[in-house]
Amino acid sequence: MPRIFLSFRKSDSRWMRDRVYRALSDRLGANEVFKSGQSIPPGADFAEILRRQAAECELMCVLIGPGWRDARGEDGVRLLDRAHDWVRVEIATALRAGNRVVPVLLGDATMLPDASALPAEIAQLARLQFVRVPETHLPDGLAHFGDELTALLSDAGTDTDADAGTALEPGHGTAPAADPEPSVTMTAHVSGGGSAYQAARDQTIRLA
Predict the structure, then answer these.
(1) What domain count does the chain have?
(2) Cβ atoms < 10 Å from Cβ of 71
(3) Do residue 135 and residue 201 come from a single domain?
(4) pLDDT score at 119
(5) Range of 51's domain?
(6) Same-domain pairing of 82 and 51
(7) 19 compared with 164, residue with greater pLDDT
(8) Domain match, 198 and 147 both
(9) How many Å apart are CA 62 and CA 55, to the nearest integer?
(10) 82 exposed, middle or buried (CB, 10 Å; 0-12, 13-18, 19+)?
């Protein structure tokens, strides 16, 4: 089962979407990335596969380009406003399943849609932290994007192992765990105000 589901609109930012897919496939392996055009075999029930993959993926990347929100059909109706729009169905399915959903903004100027511009069942998308893949310096942007997703998948794998009770304990083929390093607290004075920022797992900066 692929761990990453790429949700996208076919008419939106195709060349950047393909670059994202190739970059993730090269880094993680093609079998770890679900993309409908490559991952659904001929003759398969695509509707059943899309729903199942969206419900069971560890992470859904919603690829959003300039034309994602306002794409319309031949009748002039916005695609997102159709209950059977597959982009809408995929996102709603993943959200209901409690999966991690990450908006991925393609290009330098693409903005995350407001909740008011989205159907109610996927309005939560507007409140989720996004990742941007810029068109300028694209190789660096793709590398950073790969780093972000690899970290998210690693965290998910660690949580899964802990929940399942499969984490190795000292004395079972592993060296004893080192004592945790003491917490280090740093205070920074910033003009104009600010908010707390966690620098690392063992280090906290408080703005004063």
Answers:
(1) 2
(2) 17
(3) no
(4) 97
(5) 4-161
(6) yes
(7) 19
(8) no
(9) 14
(10) middle
CA dihedral of 163, 168, 171, 173, whole degrees rounded to 10: 160
Q: Are 110 and 104 in contact (CB under 8 A)?
A: no
Distance CA 22, CA 138 (A): 13
pLDDT band, very low/low/confident/very high, at 38 (cuts 50, 70, 90): confident
Amino acid identity for residue 143 in this structure: A
Considering the domain boundaries, does residue 166 fall inside one? no
Q: How far apart are CA 74 and CA 70, in angstroms?
A: 13
Domain contains 172: no
Contact 4, 57 (CB under 8 A): yes
Whole-angstrom Cα Rg for the chain: 20
Global model pTM greater than 0.85: no
Report d(CA 98, CA 76) in Å as an integer.
33
Task: Give me the torsion for CA of 90, 96, 71, 18, rounded to 10°.
Answer: -40
Same structural domain, 93 and 17:
yes
Residue 194 belongs to some domain of the structure: yes
63 or 179, higher pLDDT = 63
Within a 13 Å sphere around the CA of 93, how many CA atoms are in the beta-carbon half?
A: 25
Are 104 and 68 a contacting pair, CB within 8 Å? Answer: no
The answer to whether position 143 is within a domain reads yes
Sheet containing strand 100-106, strands side by side: 33-34, 4-7, 59-64, 100-106, 131-133
Are 129 and 195 within one domain?
no
> Which tokens go with 29?
């392996």
